[in-house]
Amino acid sequence: MRTHPIGSFETDLQRRVYEYVERNGAVTPAELARSIEVDGGRAHSKPARSGTYTETVAPAPDDLRSCIETLQTEGYLTEVDGKLRIALSATTTDLACADGTVTIRPAHEEDRDGIVETMRTVADDGTYVVAANVATELEREPALVRANEERSRVFFVAELGEEPADAEPDGAETGDDLSMADRDIVGWVHVDAPELPSLRHTAEITVGVDPEYRRQGVGSSLLEYGCEWATDAGYQKLYQNLPATNEAAIEFLEENGWQREGEHEGQYCLDGEFVDEIMLATWP
Q1: Cβ atoms within 10 Å of 248's Cβ, excluding its own
Q2: What pLDDT is stored for residue 194 in this prediction?
Q3: What does residue 133 show for φ and ψ, rounded to 5 degrees?
Q4: Fewer CB near the last or first residue (10 Å), C or N of the chain?
């Protein structure tokens, strides 16, 4: 998912289905059947000065089914747990930790509460301002992943399963086989970019790990995963701005090859004190 594909849709129904899923995050085919309408082809007169309008009707079941199949085949949508979602071209990565196996994967709409909770935990000391702002934004918006003409936003999560780290490996089983009830979101990486022509080569990345699961390679793995995905998606410059008081995060990014580009003096007011903003970036 790099750019909004609205111009490449072959039919109006494809466009309407994609936009509905993109706005709502995760929807069932039955919900689409109830919600999507197309031009019925019958014109009706309106009151004076209003001209005419065209009646809209629900698409024929076969047409809707064919439309969904086409959008899935062409990589716009995917179906997980019986719900249609925006498709992300990304694989899963497993990392053995002291408390179990951490799986890094594309986020699902159902991960929203876990992501917000982890962001709030990480931002609790007041130094990760961007994470706190993103958490507030997620609580207000209807969809986790966005891919439209104005914005591209994706999330990937580090998800802890109950499988112990010393369990016998099973090549036929991956982290996705564990039920959602048996898993916890312990970290995230967030790639956010405006679709403005002058900025389409850049994207903002935020990454964070629950304090209880740090020093186990989760943060570095998330950052590497997010940067690789962003590079494959066509972004050339990745950036993140942090308060100077967030020394741990600044050190973490610098250890992973990010460079300081400058600072905004007194950009934040934290606990009644003005704090500089440190601008960091990487050109992967």
Answers
A1: 13
A2: 82
A3: -70, -40
A4: C
Share of the chain above pLDDT 90, in %: 70
Amino acid identity, position 203: A
Hey, what are 119's tokens?
């962001």
Give the residue-averaged pLDDT of 98-108.
Answer: 92
Nearest to 187 by CA among 115, 283, 134: 115
CB 221, CB 92: distance < 8 Å: no
Name the residue with tokens 């112990």: 164
- Tens of pLDDT, residues 42-55: 544 455 555 554 57
- Alpha-carbon span 233 to 251, nearest angstrom: 27
Give buried/exposed letters for 71-86 (b at 16+ CB in 10 A, else e): beeeebbbeeeebbbb
Report the candidate in 204, 158, 165, 216 with the shortest Cα–Cα distance to residue 183: 158
Alpha-carbon torsion, ordered 252, 180, 153, 205, to 10 deg:
0
